[in-house]
């Protein structure tokens, strides 16, 4: 092959890698950061009952996972994947007995602090 052919293939290779690099940067930074932070947010509207006058939620550990119950401690509102095996002994005992939250906002602050 001639020198012109080698130079041509080398230029095509360099331009191809340049296009792939720029496309990768654009694809990798195109709103992916916002998607990950949006997935961690919790929708507070799903746990509020419009007919009830007073909110109230219990967090109780069942089989080392946290469950959210309504004020009556019988109706399950949500089953979480939060494992309490890494929590302190004091917090484990507290969660096995149940922790009461007056409103959904306090509840979500607690859940978000333990899912990060």
Gap from first CA to last CA: 59 Å
Report the sheet-strand fraction: 15-25%
Radius of gyration, whole Å: 26 Å
Mean pLDDT: 77
Secondary structure: number of strands? 4
Global outline: rod-shaped
Core attributes:
116 residues; 2 domains; 4 strands; transmembrane helix; Bypass of forespore C C-terminal domain-containing protein; membrane
Can you describe what's shown?
A four-stranded antiparallel beta sheet has the order 3-2-1-4. It is built from four helices and four strands; from the N terminus they run H-H-E-E-E-H-E-H. The longest helix is centred in the N-terminal third of the chain and has 27 residues, at 3-29. It is of the alpha+beta class and 116 residues long. The chain starts with a helix and ends with a helix. The protein has two domains: 3-30; 46-115. The chain has helices spanning 3-29, 32-40, 89-97, 104-115; strands at 57-62, 65-70, 76-83, 99-101.
Give a quick summary of the entry:
This protein has 116 residues and is α+β, with helices and mostly antiparallel strands.
What's the helix and strand layout?
Blueprint (H helix, E strand, L loop, with lengths): L2 H27 L2 H9 L16 E6 L2 E6 L5 E8 L5 H9 L1 E3 L2 H12 L1
Antiparallel strand pairs: 1-2, 1-4, 2-3
Keywords: Membrane, Transmembrane, Transmembrane helix
Protein name: Bypass of forespore C C-terminal domain-containing protein
Pfam families: BofC_C
